[in-house]
Amino acid sequence: MTRTTRLAVGLALAAGLAGCGAQQAPPALPPPTFGPTGPAPPSADSPALHATDLLVGFRSLGAATGVTVVRKANATHPQPAIIFFHGWGSTDANMYGPWIAHLARAGYFVIYPEYQVINKTRPDQVLATALAGVRTGLLLARLDHHAVAPGPVVTVGHSGGGVLAADYAALAARSHLPPARVVYSVYPGRKPIGGHWTSEVPLADLATMPAATQLTEHAGATDATARTGTARAIYAGATRVTRKRLTIVKAPVISDHIGPMYDYAPAHQTFWAPLDRLLNR
Fold first, then answer.
1. Residues 171-186: pLDDT tens digits?
2. Residue span of the structural domain in which 240 resides
3. Has residue 32 been placed in a domain?
4. CA-to-CA distance for 112 and 277, rounded, in angstroms?
5. What does the DSSP 8-state code read for residue 16?
6. pLDDT tier, 40 (very low <50, low <70, confident <90, very high otherwise)
7. Residue 54 gets which letter from DSSP?
8. Residue 31 within any structural domain of the chain
9. How far apart are the first and last CA of the chain?
10. Strand ranges in the chain using DSSP code E only, listed in sequence order
11. Could you give the 3-state DSSP secondary structure of residue 62?
């Protein structure tokens, strides 16, 4: 696999996706700090994926969409796959670079489908392009000495990608894709705010999500973009799933819509650590 740098492809999640509602908060977090020790804003210039201990590959799917894959450079055996669905407009994997690098270093082959052409792809089209990106990512893994271990995958998603993470789990069987053992959806939303869009990110029939799936939903108490309605709808719609959790994040800064994109301790504690615990089960 060739090492490829992708810069300035996507925009920050300036206009996310809408939803509505509220529930219990996680344990109290220390107050946020800013400046040199505080959270840096998400950036396509993040150096996290440029580290020499990672291999990063990219393949175009045409019309400026594509898929990025990331793994440890010194991996000696096939690794389980994590499919990471980005937020609306954040097509560049560097926007989530620190989190993706963390997952890759933990021993996962991360597949990051770039499911939209900014300002061109309609919300109702992104499910099809996302699944096409997953298929291409799995093909890249096979070409990379079968770098992905056979068996279930984990889906992670933020904003519009949080909906797609749940959609994947519901549709994997009929789409002839590996099943999802974990769905980890943060601040999901379906309708872009602003612009000219009239359609929404599709929400599959979640009653088809397998009972064995572990479903975790996060919603932000101060998320004025996605609110909590979509997270609640996903939680309620997965009627066969018994191991599921919905958390309403109330801590300052990270309860905002782009809170999951920050790279600092409160975000790590709230978003990274619960996923790590699920992966280690």
1. 999 999 999 999 999 9
2. 53-279
3. no
4. 21
5. -
6. confident
7. E
8. no
9. 30
10. 17-18, 54-62, 65-72, 81-85, 109-114, 153-158, 180-186, 191-192, 214-220, 243-249
11. strand
What secondary structure does DSSP assign to 75-86, as a single string?
A: --S-B-EEEEEP
| Residue-by-residue DSSP string for 217-239 | EEEETT-TTTTTHHHHHHHHH-T
Under 8 Å between Cβ of 218 and 190 = no
Q: What whole-number distance in Å separates Cα of residue 110 and Cα of residue 95?
A: 14
In a domain, 8, yes or no: no
pTM (2 d.p.): 0.87
When computed from its CA atoms, the radius of gyration of the chain, rounded to whole angstroms, is: 17
> Is 145 inside a domain boundary?
yes
Per-residue exposure over 185-195, b if at least 16 CB sit within 10 Å of its own CB, e if not: bbbbbbbbbee
**Tokens standing for residue 46:** 């993040």
| Per-residue pLDDT tens digits for 23-32 | 344 444 444 4
The reported pLDDT for the residue numbered 144 is: 86
Quote the crossing angle between the two packed helices 126-143 and 160-171, to the nearest 10°: 70
Residue 200 sits in a domain whose CATH number is 3.40.50.1820
User: Angle CA(52)–CA(53)–CA(58) in degrees, nearest 5?
Assistant: 75
Please, what's the b/e burial string for 84-118 (b: 16 or more CB within 10 A of its CB; e: otherwise)?
bbbbbbbbbbbbbbbbbbbbbebebbbbbbbbbee
**Token output for 211:** 């009972």
Residue 174 identity (one-letter amino acid): R
User: Based on the structure, what is the number of domains in the chain?
Assistant: 1
